[in-house]
Design goal:
The protein is an alpha/beta fold. Helix 8 crosses helix 11 (about 285-300), helix 9 runs antiparallel to helix 10 and helix 9 (about 250-270) packs across helix 11. It has helices spanning about 40-50, 70, 75-80, 90-95, 100-110, 115, 195-205, 225-245, 250-270, 270-280, 285-300, and strands at about 5-10, 20-25, 30-35, 60, 85-90, 130, 135-140, 140-150, 155-160, 165-170, 210-215, 220. The chain has one domain (about 5-300): Metallo-beta-lactamase, Chain A, CATH 3.60.15.10. It is built from eleven helices and twelve strands. The termini are far apart. The strands form two sheets. Strands 1-2-3-4-5-6 form a six-stranded mixed β-sheet. A six-stranded mixed β-sheet has the order 7-8-9-10-11-12. The mean pLDDT is about 95.
Length: about 300
């Protein structure tokens, strides 16, 4: 196969264009960037097979962060394949001992945990390769620059593949599902940090990548436009949430915000193009994440 980055659709809940895994050819096989949740392992295997590969060809996992939609299958894959895992040092601790992460997710998703995400197994500590940001790592002979990119999550890092000028940015630049490519933020509780996010976007832009690989969803060949659209919409959402948090009744505010966002999106780009956003974006959760961050900023002033 070519040395280029390949996009593998994990068909989350049977829907296209929601979660993508980056397949990066390296010496001895491929590295997977954000392998997704365990619930999508059959789609991962099927996608690899379509590329002429099997799970046995996976020789490394590279994580932007440890949220279940990005990293839920990590422990299962490591126990099966014995491969190393590159991840931010804060996330590494939770992969080795995932009890708190699972408890937090269970409070949010309840009885849907297994349907949405499947099993979340602990990662053996000797498989973990903790990162702080600022390193250049070598994955199967392929050099990847690492940047610490918090904002969406405190344990978020991004990677720059010099060979293809591709930045793997996880959730740092939002969700942008084809065919519309409309860029919308993903800002759920509890780790949203708007000031840190500005610095993260600057670090990604400083690489001057030719492409962005977004876990939600796939490759963008217009990185400057993607970054600018994200900054604009995040600023707009922040102003809208800030205007509403003093009005009280957070659940009603969040629900109204979600309805406005999704209804406006569907009216603008059409029902079919909006389907991945409706299937995954949850703007009500983003409202709560921004509200939490904005209230914390007020308290610290």
């Amino acid at each position: 196969m070519s040395r280029d980055v390949h996009t593998l659709d994990l068909l989350f809940l049977g829907t296209e264009r929601i979660i993508a895994t980056g397949v990066l050819p390296v010496e001895g096989g491929v590295a997977l960037v954000d392998p997704g949740p365990s619930s999508t392992l059959p789609a991962l295997e099927g996608g690899l097979a379509a590329l002429g590969l099997g799970l046995e060809d996976v020789c490394a996992l590279v994580l932007t962060h440890i949220h279940l939609d990005h990293a839920g299958a990590t422990g299962t894959l490591v126990r099966r394949l014995g491969v190393p895992v590159w991840v931010h040092e804060t996330g590494a601790r939770h992969l080795a001992r995932p009890e708190r992460l699972i408890a937090s997710a269970t409070r949010l998703y309840g009885s849907l945990m297994d349907v949405l995400w499947g099993a979340f197994e602990a990662v053996p500590p000797d498989a973990l390769r903790p990162l702080a940001g600022g390193e250049t790592i070598e994955v199967g002979g392929r050099a990847l620059d690492v940047a610490y990119t918090p904002g969406h999550a405190v344990h978020h890092v991004s990677y720059y593949d010099r060979e293809t000028s591709t930045a793997f940015v996880g959730d740092a630049v939002g969700m942008a599902a084809p065919p519309s490519g409309r860029v919308l933020p993903v800002t759920p509780p509890p780790d949203i940090d708007l000031e840190a996010w500005t610095g993260s976007l600057d670090r990604i832009a400083a690489w001057a990548p030719a492409r962005l690989f977004r876990t939600h969803w796939g490759l963008s060949t217009s990185p400057d436009a993607n970054l600018e659209a994200f900054r604009t919409t995040l600023g707009d959402w922040t102003r809208r949430v800030l205007a509403g948090i003093d009005a009280g009744d957070d659940p009603a505010q969040a629900a109204a915000f979600s309805d406005r966002v999704l209804d406006a999106l569907e009216a603008d780009i059409g029902q079919d193009a909006a389907a991945p956003y409706r299937g995954f974006l949850y703007p009500d959760a983003s409202w709560h994440g921004l509200a939490r961050a904005l209230r914390a900023d007020r308290t610290s002033e």
